[in-house]
Amino acid sequence: MQTDLTILVVERDKTKAHEIVDALLDGGWGDVTVISSPDAIEGAVKQRDPDIILIDLADPDRDTLEHLSLVTNARNRPVAMFVDHTDEQMTQAAISAGLSAYVVNGLQKDRIKPVLETAIARFRMFAKMQSELDAAKQALSDRKVIDRAKGLLIRARNISEEEAYTLLRKTAMGQGRKVIDVATALVTAAELLQ
């Protein structure tokens, strides 16, 4: 478990805020900032740049969830929200907002540590999946550009596909560039000449 995390806690009730801080300290986390108003989240996020955000709201609405998702940058850090009750629409809104944990039946001191650990693990898993998806999309996009460049070379030089790729690769090596960069330059130049 990583204990050097900066944690931002949003809790209106001072007694509950103290309980949360105590639970976090007991869990090994010491860098904790507490704010009492969801309206202050944006400023606190800019100032502290927390690694994880814990929000305790009795009864959030869909607009509040969307706003919190934006100001906490929930897609770039784990955000755990504790609520007293929910319904199917609110649960879906929480998932759409990118929350890493959405815990119903309120915040209980003994649940804080395992919920945060789970939120962190879930966030990391989704971040890894997103990174892999982005890499796959980029590879597919690169492949399409390289195929277009090969097609241009095949038509212009009357060579085979293998020879076209070899020419792209040799040119890239000779210029100290990547094959995709040479292919992109070729496709761009061909578009300009049309």
TrEMBL record:
<feature type="domain" description="ANTAR">
    <location>
        <begin position="126"/>
        <end position="187"/>
    </location>
</feature>
<dbReference type="GO" id="GO:0000160">
    <property type="term" value="P:phosphorelay signal transduction system"/>
</dbReference>
<keyword id="KW-0597">Phosphoprotein</keyword>
<protein>
    <submittedName>
        <fullName>Response regulator receiver and ANTAR domain protein</fullName>
    </submittedName>
</protein>
<dbReference type="Pfam" id="PF03861">
    <property type="entry name" value="ANTAR"/>
</dbReference>
<feature type="modified residue" description="4-aspartylphosphate">
    <location>
        <position position="56"/>
    </location>
</feature>
<dbReference type="InterPro" id="IPR005561">
    <property type="entry name" value="ANTAR"/>
</dbReference>
<dbReference type="InterPro" id="IPR008327">
    <property type="entry name" value="Sig_transdc_resp-reg_antiterm"/>
</dbReference>
<dbReference type="InterPro" id="IPR011006">
    <property type="entry name" value="CheY-like_superfamily"/>
</dbReference>
<dbReference type="Pfam" id="PF00072">
    <property type="entry name" value="Response_reg"/>
</dbReference>
<dbReference type="InterPro" id="IPR036388">
    <property type="entry name" value="WH-like_DNA-bd_sf"/>
</dbReference>
<feature type="domain" description="Response regulatory">
    <location>
        <begin position="6"/>
        <end position="120"/>
    </location>
</feature>
<dbReference type="GO" id="GO:0003723">
    <property type="term" value="F:RNA binding"/>
</dbReference>
<dbReference type="InterPro" id="IPR001789">
    <property type="entry name" value="Sig_transdc_resp-reg_receiver"/>
</dbReference>
